[in-house]
């Protein structure tokens, strides 16, 4: 079981690395938030699952499940709040951006 746990932990580490690379490579704040959030959420969950599988005698499984649920709920919510705040202060989009649906919604709300 330690080998399976090590493989899952390695896959989680790869996702975490790819998330960091995505934050470095993306052109604007909104793409960076999206790349970082998706990869780090999955990477952290896989990392914790791998640790739980590989070290069943040391790591309490209930605590890991609670951590995974906490990350699963809070990571997307916090990134959404950051993206809304960045859009609210009119952070510029990348030149490649084709559409901004949130700007259309904000235009309709103003009288």
Cα separation of the termini: 62 Å
Largest sheet: none
| Radius of gyration computed on alpha carbons | 18 Å
Give average pLDDT, whole number: 87
Give the overall form.
Answer: elongated
Q: What class would the helix/strand composition place it in?
A: mainly alpha
Strand elements, count: 0
Amount of beta strand? under 5%
Percentage of residues in helical conformation: over 70%
H/E element order: HHHH
- The low-confidence runs, each spanning 5 or more residues with pLDDT under 50, are none
- The domain count comes to 1
- Count of DSSP H/I helices: 4
Task: Please give a handful of descriptors for the protein shown.
111 residues, 4 helices, mainly alpha
Explain what you see:
The protein has 111 residues and is mostly helical. The chain has one domain. Helices cover 78% and strands 0% of the residues. The longest helix has 28 residues. It starts with a helix and ends with a helix. The model has no long low-confidence stretch (mean pLDDT 87).
Describe this structure in a few short sentences.
With 111 residues, the chain is mainly α. It is built from four helices and no strands.
């Amino acid at each position: 079981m330690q080998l399976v746990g090590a493989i899952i932990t390695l896959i989680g580490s790869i996702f975490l690395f790819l998330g960091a690379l995505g934050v470095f490579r993306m052109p604007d704040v909104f793409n960076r938030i999206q790349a970082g959030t998706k990869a780090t959420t999955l990477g952290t969950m896989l990392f914790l699952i791998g640790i739980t599988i590989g070290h069943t005698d040391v790591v309490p499984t209930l605590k890991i499940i609670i951590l995974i649920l906490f990350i699963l709920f809070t990571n997307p919510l916090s990134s959404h709040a950051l993206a809304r705040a960045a859009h609210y202060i009119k952070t510029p989009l990348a030149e490649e951006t084709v559409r901004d649906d949130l700007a259309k919604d904000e235009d309709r709300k103003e009288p």
